[in-house]
Fold these 2 entries.
Entry 1:
Amino acid sequence: LCLQVYCWEILAHTLKAFMELMEHDFVSWETLSAAFIKKIVSYVNMNAMDASVQQLSMSILENMVPSSRVLFELVKKEVTVDRLLTHLQVTNAQLQLKAMALLIALLLAATDAERQNIIHSSEPLGDEMAHYLYVLQSVSLNLHERRMRMSMDPYSQEQRELLQSLRQSAFESESDAPAGTFSTERRRSLCAKEFRKLGFMNNSNPAEDLRRAPPGLLALDNMVYFSRHTPSAYSRFILENSSREDKHECPFARSSIQLTLILCEILHVGEPCSETAQAFYPMFFGQDHFFEELFCICIQLVNKTWKEMRATQEDFDKVLQVVREQITRTLSLKPTSLELFKTRVNALNYSEILKLRQTERLHQEETLAVPVLELRERLKPELLELIRQQRLLRLCEGTLFRKISSRRRQDKLWYCRLSPNHKVLHYGDVEEGVHSPPIESLPEKIPVADMKALLVGKECPHTKEKSSGKQNKDVLELAFSIVYDVEEYCLNFVAPTRYEFCLWTDGLNVLLGKEMTSERTQTDLDVLLSMELKLRLLDLENISIPDNPPPVPKPPSNLNFCYDFSHAEQ
C-alpha cells in the first residue's frame, strides 16, 4: 500500500511538470500521441486512483480539447459523460471543479448536434462552480439560437404543417372537411377566420407573422409545444378569447411571438458566454425542455395579466411590459423548480406590480431626484429645531433616575428636571412611588450657565471603577455626567432606558450649544423628513420632477406694460 501511494505521488509530480511544460508552449498539443492521451484518460476513468492524479489528468484534457478538433474527438470518445457525472457526485470539491471544467470544455468545442447530452448538475460549490453552471446553462440555451434566427419559409412543407397543426388543435374546423365539400375560396375564408381567432395579425398568410427573426421559428416551436403538451390549456386559451368582444381578446399568436422574444432577451439566448458571470437558474437543471416549459407557464401568465388589466389591442405593448417585469422579478428570486416559479409568478399579479412600482418610484424620488435632495437640505434646519424643542420640553418634564451605590445596589431614587425658562436644572431625592414631583420640592440646583461639558459612557467618573459583567455593560451604555462650576463638579446619571439616555444627552447638548449626536436624533429626523416630503410632493403625483430648474426668461425690452398709479390719483 505504501509503495502504491509512493507511485501515485511520483505520477502526480510528473503530470504537474508536464502541465507546466505545456503551459510555456514548448510543445504543441497536437504532437501528443493517441496512446499518451488514452493513458491520461485511463487515469480519469479508473475507480481506484488517487484524487490528485485524477485532477491533474482532467486539467490536461481540459487544455487539450480546445486546441484541436482531432484531440476533441478523441477525448469525447474516451471520456464518457457518465464518468464525468460520477466525478461530480464525489465529496472532493476540487475533483468536482475539474470534472465540470472538462465537461464545459467539451461542450464549448462541440457542435450544436453534439451538445444534446445535458448535465443536471449537483449543488454549486463556490464561485468557480457557479461559473461552470452558468456556462453549462448558457451553452444549452444557445441550442435554440439557430431556430431563433431562422425566418419561416412559406414554401417549406414541414413548417406549413406545423402552422396548420395549431389551427387544427384549436378548432374542429369545417375547412378540414373532405375535398369537394367547400369551394377553394370558402375553405380559405374559413382558414383565415380561424387564424384570426388564433391571434395572427396577417390571418390570410400567417407565415408573414413569423418572418421576423428573432424570434423566428422558435416562436412557432413554442406554440406547437404548448398545443401538444398542454392541449387543455391551449384550447382554453383560444376558445376563451374567441368568445370575447373583439377589442378585449388576447391574441395568442402575437403574444407568443413577442413572449418568445422577451424570454430570449431575459435568458440571453444567442449571446456569447461571459468569462466571469455566475448567474444561473437552479430550476434550469431540473427540466429536459426548460425553455419550452417556461414558455408554457408564461403564455398562460400573459392571458391572466391581460384579464387583470382589462386590456384591449391598443394595450398590447403595455401588457407585455408588465409580463416581462413579472418574469424578471420572479427569476431574481432564483426559484429551484418550475413549479415554484409558476406559483410565485402567478402570485405577482398586476396590482402587486403597481404597488412595487409605486414604492420604487417614491424611493427613487426621495433619494435620487436632485430637486428633492435640495428640498431635504432646506427642510433639515427647521426640523432639527423642532427636535431641539422637543428635547428641551422632555427635560422640562423631568425623569426619575436611580442612584447607583459603590456596590452597584440600586437603592435610592432621585429626580431631575429643567426649569421652564431653560436656565436652571433642579434635582433632588424622592420617595418610591413619586413620579413627577413639583419643581419647588427639588432643593438642588445647577445653573445652565455653569455647565461646562457632557460626559458619556466610560468618560463618566461613576463608571471608571473596574468591574465586569452584564450589569456594568448596561450601566456604561446608559451613563452620562454633567461637569459644572469652576471646581468642575460632576452630576452623574444612569438613564432608565436607552430612549431616555438619547433624549437627555441631546437636550443637554442643546443647552451647551452643541450638536445632537444620539442615534435617536437621526431616526426622528428621517421620519419627519419623510412625512414632510410626502406632504410637499402630494400634488406632484405621477408628474416627473426635472433635475434642473427651467431657465429664467430674458427681461422685457421695456416696462411700459406696468400700470402707472400716478394717473389714477389725478
Note: The two ends are 126 Å apart (CA to CA).
Entry 2:
Amino acid sequence: MECQWHQVCTRLVEPACGDRLSDQLQKSIRAMFDTLEADIVVVQEAKIQRKDLQDDMVLIPGWDVYFSLPKHKKGYSGVAIYTRSSKCAPIRAEEGITGILCPPNSSTTFRDLPEDQQIGGYPRPGQLSGEVDEATLDSEGRCVILEFPAFVLVGVYSPATRDESRDEFRHAFTEAMDVRVRNLVAMGKEVVLTGDLNIIRSELDTAGLVEQLRKEEVSLDDFFSSPSRRFLNQIVFGGRVVGTRDEGREEAVLWDLCREFHPTRTGMYTCWDTRKNCRPGNFGSRIDYVLCSSGIKDWFIDANIQEGLLGSDHCPVYATMGDTVSHNGTTVPITDVMNPTGMFKDGERQREWTIKDALPTSAKLIPEFSNRRSIKDMFFKKPRATIKPTTATAMPGGQDPPPLTITISTGPEKDSWAQGDLASSQPSSQVTAPPSSGSTLLASPQKPPAKRLAVASPAKRPQKKGKVTLAKEPSKTGASASQGTLKSFFKPKTPVPSPSQEPTGTDNTASATADISTASELLPAELPPEIQSPNQSLKGSAESSAKETPLTTVPTDDKVFDPIENKASWSKLLGKRVVPKCEHGEDCVSRITKKPGVNCGRSFFMCARPTGPSGKKEDGTTEFCCKTFIWSSEWKPSSSASLSG
C-alpha cells in the first residue's frame, strides 16, 4: 500500500507516502510502526480497494484499523487510521467528511443515527455550495473520523491540484472539510485535523516560490488568494489572509503545531518531486500538517517532521502529547481520556481491549477477517464431548436392555446422509456402559433405520468411476493407442535403412516388431487375414519399399554461418543504447516533456543528478544537476561532444 503517515496520542504520526500501501506497508507494516513509535498512525494514499486488503494490513497484533477506500476508482486515494489498542481506543468512528455514508450492514447514514451514536458537526443545509453532491465527495475514500473522549481526530487526503478539470471537486472538498471542523468546534468538541492537505500555507513552506511567481508575473497576494489557500489560512491561527475574511470563517479555530514549535524554520518540507530527484537537494514543499484546536494545544510537547525516513515522496509528520494533560480543570493521565470509560483509571488499566470493543467500521469486523480461529486452537483446544444416550428398549422376557452408548465427537454433527459418506473419515470413539439398575427404560419396539446400520458398517464405499480411476487402469500394450510417447515425436515411425548398413540389428528388428504388433491389436476383426496378421506382410512391404525408393540428398549451401559474426550483428541491433554525457562526464537520463505545447511528448536527455536547493540547473562544478539538455531526436551516438542549453 502506498502511505503517508501522521501520529497522535502519546504520539500521533501522519506518515506521508505516495506509492502503494500494498507495496510498502504490506512488506513490513509492524516494522514501520516500531520505527515511528506512534500510538495513532494516519495513512494517506493507500491506493487499494477492499479486495486488496490482506491479513498483514488488518490483523496486526495490538492494533486496530479503520479504512476509507475508493468506491469506484481502482488504485486511487484511500485513508487508514491505525490505533494502538494498549494506549488508545476510539468510542465512535465514521467514514467520509459529510456523514452521508452508512455504517457497515446498515442503510442508515451516519448523520441519521441516534444522537448518542453520532460524532456530529455534519454540514447543515445551506452551508455547502452544492457544486458537487455529498455522495460524490465521499466516494473517493478521502476521510476517516475517529472520536476519543478527549477529541475528534479527522484524517484526510485532500485532492491535489492537477488540472482545471478537478478544481470544482477540490474546492467542494475543502469547503466540506472547513464546515465540518468548524461545526465540531462550535459543538464544544476539541479537534485534531491531520493529513496530506496538498496546500502550501506560506512562502516558507515551498522552495523557490518567489522567483517562480516573478517569472509567471503573479504576486504573492494573488497566489495566496486561491480558494484552497484561503481556506487553510483562515482556519489556522496566524494565517496569511488577503482582504476581508469569508462569511462563516471570521475566526481561526486550529493551530499549526509544526509552525508553533518551529515558527521561522526554512526548508521544513514534507513532499518532493521524485521524477526530478529533488529530495537530496531538499527542493520541496510542506503540504502535510497536524492541526489542533485551542483547548488541547497545550497538551502537545513536540511536533516535527521526520525527513530522514525514506520510502515515499513524502516524509512523516508527528506531534507528541505529554503523559499527563489538563482536562476539565484537573490533571489526568493521557490514557484516561483516550479510552472508553472503565478501561483506564488513574493511568492504570482496568480491563484489556477485546474484539468486542471494536467499532462497526473497524476493519477487524470485515467478514473476511472476523471470526478467525487461532492455529493454536487446532492443537490445544479440547474437543467438545457430546453424550448421546440411545433409547433404551424394554426387552421381552425380562432380558437386559442394550448397553448405553456414549459418543465423543471431535467435529460438528452431520446429517445422516453426510455421515454415510464420511463414516470412514470422521474420528469418533464409543464407550459402552451397562445400564444402571435404577434407570427408567422406555418401551420402543421400533428398530433403528437401516441407514444408521449402514453408517456403522466399516465397509468401504464403492469407488467413484471418474477420470482418475480410468486413467489408472493399466493398458494392454503399456502405452496409450491414441497418444504416443514424447520419444515417438523425435524418431520415425518406420526405421529407414541407410544404403551402407542393412537393418539387421536385433534391437531394430525387435522394435519394429513391437510397433507392428501394437498396430495389429487395433485392427478390426473384419479385415482380411493378410491384414489381420501384418507381421509378415507389412514387414515385407516396408523392406521392399525401402529398397525400391532411392535416397535423395538435400543440397547444401556453400555459405557457412559464423556464430561469432551472428552474435556481433545481433549485439549491434539489441545492444545497450548509447546516451550522451553531461557536464559532469556522467551518463544522461531520458525524460519526456509533459508541459502542454508543441514539444509535449518529446523525449530529451538531461543530467541525472538531483535538483539543487535553488531549483535551478547549475554548472558542472557543483554536486547537483547541471545545464545539459539534448533533444533525443537531435542526438547522434557518433557525436563527440554533448550540446548544452
Note: The first helix runs from residue 21 to 36.
